[in-house]
């Protein structure tokens, strides 16, 4: 029996499209509606089966929804949720997939009339964007962070947890600030480092790159405007992560310059051991 009568996905790209496919595969909604600005992307989403119908009108897309998932750039989420709130039925559960949480939580913690908002962030993605690459199993065995506040409706938060659990994810609850501090190290700093490595490499040596360079810089291929928004919305925590990163780089350089091979190997082993602890 479907849990939702109408689930509306605002922003049907890789993440939104994968949510639609996953919900459909598990029979979680009677109807799945896609809302977006790009008509071609909406057509692709319907073609792959991520949504039943689409619209570019957000008011029309949410007027009958009992669940809305916002998969949009972080600087658009607050405005979208506020617009959804003006047009959705009273009690509609609204959640998001934004990569930073503090600013969003602070802006939406009060002032909503109809929507019951629950902050969320699925730690999943892929090298290719768009609904053509959506995957119904994208969230299986992946972590989804929920960031409710003291004002968050408890029943709504539990319903969003049940949704992600049904999609195969492991749900972790964190405070918005705690989430942003952690993700500065585990997501934002890696992208920063990947972009720096790619930008540092002389173009004439690119034909000599192999798997090491490709693995290290893969995420640097992400949308620059999207990542600029993520960095600036989590500026304080990213800067603290960079402080620590720069200290480690300085220690590695100092060991190399001083011909201190033992210290250099120890620092490299520190990194290896931390990486090995992840286990994949």
Automatic annotation (TrEMBL):
What keywords tag this UniProt record? Oxidoreductase
**InterPro entries this protein is in?**
6-PGluconate_DH-like_C_sf, NAD(P)-bd_dom_sf, PDH_C, PDH_N, Preph/Arog_dehydrog, Prephen_DH
PROSITE patterns given in the database record: PDH_ADH
Domain Prephenate/arogenate dehydrogenase intervals: 5-280
Name the source's superkingdom: Bacteria
Show which residues constitute the signal peptide.
none
The biological process GO terms on file are: tyrosine biosynthetic process
GO terms assigned for molecular function = NAD+ binding; prephenate dehydrogenase (NAD+) activity; prephenate dehydrogenase (NADP+) activity
Which named protein is this? Answer: Prephenate dehydrogenase
